[in-house]
């Protein structure tokens, strides 16, 4: 039962005067109003029955302290009972005992959800806009990887573990031993890697088949692990080591840091204001996630906080037509470098005239017509684009005719559907104006490093996508609070804001 008790300062609260006025937690408490948290979470509590619960505001603040100082559940409770600044931030009296660490874990897993944390981030950003802390009109978007809190296993090892787990679960449920089931092969002794995978797959399929014959409807747990094993085997990505790699954390996936380096875990994508460096939206996905999948909803969420978006910055991974269209749709300008993977054109050979929709080669020959085409790809799907045809007579008299028009009488330029638009963008990106503007994106790299080095986002604290998503959003909230305090300390405008709200508190 959620019961709001009146907060009255005790005699011991005079100890809070010892906390310096420039302390980060004191500044945060003066500027950010956390009272909205109780209202936000009140529907998750029973209003009339049950034991009185700890206020959601207190529990959320404990979680924010935990991620602000990179502490465990036990550490944040132990330190909180001794640290005056922590107790002041929590809004309790110095003699108040904080809840047990187990309650903190229950609150995080049973009360907090992704949507709730999104609302919390949104409200804190909205308060920053309202109080003049956020004034900029540009944001950056980027994704960072998070290592899973477990080791990845090879398909052979995972299939061996699944087989043993099926047998163990069956024997525990029935009390009978399985004597006729074959023992797991020693796959490490097989030199051929593909053969080792095939042998272990045959072993697991045999275990599944034989155990299924012996089970009835009573062995629910055995049926569950058998069904899970079948799903893993049926996933085409599993044998190529891109699917499930751990029974402890089934959501983690292998992703790429670069062309030569991969990682195992998750990706967190976030939007951040370029001037104030405050995170406005966060999304988390498995390690195989392609950057930009959440761009549209994250930008919409950022606008919802009251920020006027005029510029959006990103790296080459975000140079895709759908993302560029989404940015244009909200009346903002994209500052994203052209990606060679979607814009394949040698600009030293061709130039484009947008007004006449004509291409010109480096020998001065100009296209006279175009045709749209669509061909099937070997890997599936269609390849669509345009074929531009150069003037025939000019091609025939060109000294490079035999070199560039080998299979036809004249040269034909094949481009994608969006190549003409991308050409215009590429020309602007060569200007000094774009190069100067794009320097603003660098601030998000520093935020990536801060999240990982000082707030524990380099590695997942728990298991599963939901847990990592909650960790990411709490970390973003914590660094936002730290950044708000830094802004107030670093400029005169911030001090004026600080002073005005101190007066309001009084």
Structure write-up:
This protein is an alpha+beta fold and 506 residues long. 44% of the residues lie in helices and 14% in strands. It contains 19 helices and eleven strands. The strands form three sheets. Strands 1, 2, 3, 4, 5 and 6 form a six-stranded mixed β-sheet that branches. Strands 9-10-11 form a three-stranded antiparallel β-sheet. Strands 7-8 form a two-stranded antiparallel ribbon. Helix 3 packs across helix 4. The radius of gyration is 30 Å and the shape is flat.
Beta-sheet strand percentage? 5-15%
Largest sheet: number of strands, sense, barrel closure: 6 strands, mixed
By DSSP, the count of extended strands is 11
Coarse structural class: alpha+beta
Distance between the termini: 32 Å
Number of helices: 19
Q: Percentage of helical residues?
A: 40-55%
Indicate the radius of gyration in whole angstroms: 30 Å
Short key terms for the protein model shown above:
19 helices; three-stranded antiparallel sheet; 506 residues; six-stranded mixed sheet; flat; alpha+beta
